[in-house]
Design goal:
Distance between the termini: 116 Å
Structural class: mainly alpha
Radius of gyration: 33 Å
Number of strands: 0
């Protein structure tokens, strides 16, 4: 009878260990993609800000070249 109880307790511990391992695996699976997505979003926003800065610099350069241009009348 005590052997039956020890076998049941052993099975319960194995089930508990498997459940904990499953929960930890699920947390890892959920955490990695969100971190990866967050990194992609940060990179995208950084690239967009660089592109906007470059466009503004080009506009400023164009406006400066237009303002320094001398128009002569024929």
């Amino acid at each position: 009878m005590s052997e039956d109880r020890s076998a049941i307790y052993k099975i319960r511990w194995e089930i508990l260990i498997m459940a904990v391992a499953l929960v930890l695996s699920a947390l890892v699976v959920l955490a990695i993609p969100s971190d990866f997505s967050q990194r992609l979003v940060e990179q995208r926003t950084e690239e967009e800000s660089k592109n906007k800065t470059a466009e503004l610099e080009e506009q400023v350069d164009f406006n400066e070249s237009e303002s320094t241009r001398v128009v002569t009348k024929p």
